[in-house]
Design goal:
By secondary structure, the protein is α+β, with helices and mostly antiparallel strands. The protein is built from 4 helices and 8 strands, in the order αββαααββββββ. Keywords: Lipoprotein.
């Protein structure tokens, strides 16, 4: 009888220990985001890059880190895409290039270089002369925050880059 009680105790202890291990592992947190990272969501409209008949088609999207916004803001689509301006080359670094289809959603995480002050987005629209194909977004650094919250971790920023039929929108999301 005593031997049976020991076996029952061992089974009960084993079940309790397994339950504790499962409970502790269920409480683990999601992987931490890199400090200062950007969570980027590319969201393409279903009507992007219309042709003469109004049919949507994929577009090429490029994202750049900018050390200064001056040369980028003064450049047109062809100067940026062909990298023909030496000053622009020293101020920009391409960090993403890809094609996006109408209605597609793409997510990525970027960690800008410490000397980057802004992101630049360039979209290769078919009707480039009537499109708003270049957009910048200033990177907010920890040092720009109020003095009383600088000691808090910087965390990550979430951005939504909307690729509309003939324009780009960039907004910060929660």
């Amino acid at each position: 009888m005593e031997r049976l009680l020991k076996q029952i105790r061992l089974v009960v202890y084993g079940v309790l220990l397994s339950g504790c291990v499962l409970q502790i592992s269920a409480c683990s947190s999601a992987p931490a985001k890199k400090e200062g990272s950007l969570e980027l969501e590319l969201l393409a409209s279903k009507k992007i890059n219309p042709n003469e008949k109004g049919q949507a088609s994929p577009v090429s999207v490029r994202i750049y880190e900018l050390k200064s916004t001056d040369a980028f803001a003064m450049s047109d689509y062809f100067t940026i895409s062909e990298a023909s301006d030496p000053e622009l080359l020293t101020q920009t670094q391409k960090i993403y290039e890809g094609m996006i289809k109408p209605g597609e959603k793409r997510e990525m995480e970027l960690t800008p270089a410490p000397d980057a002050v802004a992101l630049g987005v360039v979209v290769a629209y078919r009707d480039i002369n009537h499109a708003d194909a270049i957009k910048t977004w200033p990177i907010k650094r920890k040092d720009n925050r109020a003095w009383y919250i600088r000691w808090l971790p910087e965390g990550s920023t979430a951005l939504q880059v909307g690729i509309e039929p003939l324009a780009i929108t960039i907004k910060e999301v929660d």
